[in-house]
């Protein structure tokens, strides 16, 4: 887990103004905590401390945000868009989601972070940057969510148990009755 985050932060730190070694260690720990907090608050059933970074990329780029959305009830276009340059980090990671305390799903997804404003972004905010789009296109086929083999076995075991127990009860319960 730490190795992947270190790779991400190395790319981010070398491409931005964080070239001092003392700041690099602090920034690494800070970003790890920020990412963990974001996952805990936004990803349903997130299994704590289960993230592992697959790939990461950092750059200075353009961020596009819709500040004021358009009101569909009026004919005027009230939409206001803000564009600014910022240090952007994109991370492709794998995390675990634990449901009912038994079933574990592995999920791979992208997260975008604005280091200057210290906030997470959506894909629509940053995919106007060509290099981020290339990074996204490189990994877009790897986005998935799958159940782990042990969890699948456990699910199939419980499912067969639910079907087989009533069947055995029907077969062996009525042994004492007379036959016609």
Automatic annotation (TrEMBL):
Signal peptide residues are 1-24
* Sorted UniProt keywords: Signal
This chain belongs to the protein called TPM domain-containing protein
User: What is the organism of origin for this protein?
Assistant: Sporosarcina globispora (Bacillus globisporus)
């Amino acid at each position: 887990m730490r190795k992947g985050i270190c790779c991400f932060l190395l790319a981010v730190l070398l491409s931005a103004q964080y070239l001092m070694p003392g700041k690099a260690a602090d920034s690494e720990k800070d970003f790890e905590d920020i990412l963990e907090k974001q996952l805990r608050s936004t990803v349903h059933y997130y299994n704590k401390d289960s993230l592992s970074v697959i790939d990461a990329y950092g750059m200075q780029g353009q961020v596009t945000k819709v500040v004021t959305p358009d009101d569909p009830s009026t004919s005027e276009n009230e939409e206001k868009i803000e564009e600014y340059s910022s240090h952007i980090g994109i991370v492709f990671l794998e995390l675990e989601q634990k449901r009912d305390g038994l079933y574990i799903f592995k999920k791979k997804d992208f997260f975008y972070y604005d280091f200057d404003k210290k906030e997470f972004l959506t894909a629509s905010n940053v995919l106007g940057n060509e290099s981020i789009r290339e990074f996204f296109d490189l990994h877009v086929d790897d986005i998935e969510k799958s159940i782990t083999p042990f969890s699948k076995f456990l699910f199939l075991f419980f499912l067969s148990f639910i079907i087989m127990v009533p069947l055995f009860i029907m077969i062996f319960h009525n042994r004492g009755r007379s036959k016609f």
